[in-house]
């Protein structure tokens, strides 16, 4: 068992986590920026105005991208389980 194999597996897992989280977070960040510019332009300082659109967009990203997210996670898990014999021997 080479340490390089485990480092490769760990780096693949971390990259997958970054991709999955960014697919959920980036739309919320964009909507948050748009709402912040709108609030700055109109001088409206309402807390729910900044929170609710980000929550809705994050939930929509989970609803519409959920299948893709689960598929990526399943592909990684299947690839990880399939590589067990080569890692152990």
A few lines on this structure:
With 89 residues, this protein is mostly helical. The chain has helices spanning 3-42, 47-82, 84-88. The protein is built from three helices and no strands.
Key phrases:
89 residues, mainly alpha, FliQ, Flagellar biosynthetic protein FliQ, membrane
What does it look like?
The chain is mainly α. Helix 1 runs antiparallel to helix 2. It has a domain of 60 residues. The termini are close together. Helices cover 91% and strands 0% of the residues.
Number of strands: 0
What is the alpha-carbon Rg in Å? 19 Å
Determine the strand fraction and express it as a percent band: under 5%
- How far apart the termini lie comes to 7 Å
Unreliable spans are none
Mean pLDDT: 92
- Globally, the shape reads elongated
Label the structural class.
mainly alpha
Encode the helix/strand succession as letters: HHH
Give me the secondary-structure topology.
Layout: H1 3-42, H2 47-82, H3 84-88
Helix pairs in contact: 1-2
InterPro entries: Bac_export_3 (IPR002191), FliQ (IPR006305)
GO cellular component, one term: plasma membrane
Pfam families: Bac_export_3
